[in-house]
Specification:
Order of helices and strands: HH
Shape: elongated
Number of strands: 0
Distance between the termini: 48 Å
Radius of gyration: 20 Å
Length: 70
């Protein structure tokens, strides 16, 4: 799987996580690690969604101010 838009730090963290997964022999530990990864991914999506919503509100407010709609 290619990750073209990741920073070097993100690539490093991803590789470290892959190695931890590959080394895991305990199925319960692997389950917990997988749950953690999925939860982190969903939290990041939520953060991005909220940030985009906030930016849209700010842009709309700025445009409305510029055209005298307030």
């Amino acid at each position: 799987m290619e990750n073209h838009h990741l920073s070097m730090e993100q690539k490093f963290n991803l590789e470290a996580a892959f190695r931890q997964i590959d080394a895991c022999k305990d199925i319960n530990q692997l389950r917990e690690l997988t749950k953690h990864v999925i939860t982190s991914q969903e939290n990041e999506k939520a953060f991005a969604r909220i940030a985009i919503q906030q930016m849209r509100k700010e842009i709309e407010s700025s445009l409305a101010d510029g055209f005298g709609f307030k």
